[in-house]
Amino acid sequence: MKLRKLMWLALIVCFVFPTNTKVSAKFADVPPIHSSYEDVKYMFEKGILDFGDTDIVTRAEVIGYIARSVGLDGTPKNTRFKDVSIKNKYSGYIHSAFEAGIVNGFSDDTFRPNEEVTRGHAAVFIARAFDLPHGQHVVIKDVSEGDLEYTAVQQLYALDITKGYGDGTFRPNNSLTRAHLITFLARTLQYLEKIADPLLTVETLRPITAFDESQYNGQARITFSYDDGFISNYLNSVPLHVKYDIPATFNIIAGNVYSGNERYMDSKQVWVTHNLGFEIASHTLSHRSLTELSDEEIHEEFIESKFILEDLVGKISTLTVPNSLYDERVRNIATEYFDGVRVFSRQLITEENYDPYWMTSYVTLNTTSFSNIKDWIDRAVADKAWLIIMLHGVTDTAEGEYEITPYLLDQVLQYVDQLGKEKLLPVSTSDGITLMNR
């Protein structure tokens, strides 16, 4: 899988676009008003499309398209399938696709190259070929959990590669048309181009714009608050926040900084994140449930976490509570060390309910969709309230209960950016406190 990712990344960098391409002249059956015109043009300019039929495609043709998109070898050769010899012009692609784990063939050792392909099978081929990340669950009327194509179709929906039909169906058993195949592949490649931006690596990033209190005129505010200090935040979240110039707060379990545990940011990565303009906050020393500790142990959690983190980045102003377990006893001790504490309570922060030592937040899960988060944001904008979003890992698979994908995070940050600071001002936790207290 990793090899295929490297191959398509290289292809994205190396493709040369022809100039003055006249797609409609090359493909008479795809005029500029055709719904697939832009996708056909894109694929032709990529050098992947060299024929313009719009009828139903065969298994061999589909694998030909996909293999060329991924960059597999198409040199004709004998295959393991008794019905695909070196004389078949797609034999090289079919052989390479089998070797790459994209196709398996049938139990009778045939590939059936001339059979039509269903939309469901095409989804499986594409998801395998491009090693697509898992997405949040989408309800599709005719694709159920347990169906062969279920996971692949969910992946395509999550990345906006397809939205199915207007009646809420995907029609997985329908024969695949060439136009739909081209659209699926074009959108897949465009998604990969987007996330493969060579500028979006931590080593080449520039700091985000410093907070400017004068930008606040009573509008809604939003804070992205990342718990635990996972390495996926450093590799995936930080570059996306820099891309959109949107601040965030990274709440670090201080005891992990020098632990050598590769799941978490180390001291250098915490320092780099701070130097890029992001707030570093405390998530205690060891992530123990504070309500279950003695007063002495709570003091130790706060003192030691601040000592480790402040030695790296300077003043630590805010705390996030492990496991959302918090009470008045813990609150009273926290006031001795921090300017504010973030908890979990699915509530927007307003002037009426604001308490700097009991700041509520909404949490993202691997079942949270863009529409869910958009709804939180839209309500904050309408109420001119402060929305704090609690996040954890940001990974391609989002297998953990509290993880989301980089694609979903990108969607959310893009929406925040489009709204503009006049409607929704992104702030760190400490800067949000500053605005509430003034």
In short:
The protein has 438 residues and is an alpha/beta fold. The chain has helices spanning 2-14, 23-26, 37-45, 59-70, 91-99, 119-130, 150-158, 178-195, 231-244, 267-275, 295-313, 328-334, 370-383, 406-419, 429-437; strands spanning 220-228, 249-252, 279-282, 318-320, 340-342, 362-363, 386-391, 424-426.
How would you characterize the overall build of this protein?
The chain has 438 residues and is an alpha/beta fold. The protein has 2 domains: 2-195, no CATH class; 202-437, Alpha-Beta Barrel (TIM Barrel). Helix content is 39%, strand content 8%. It has 15 helices and 8 strands. The strands form 2 sheets. Strands 1, 2, 3, 6, 7 and 8 form a 6-stranded parallel sheet that branches. Helix 13 links the parallel strand 6 (362-363) and strand 7 (386-391). The longest helix is centred in the last third of the chain and has 19 residues, at 295-313. The N and C termini lie far apart (52 Å).
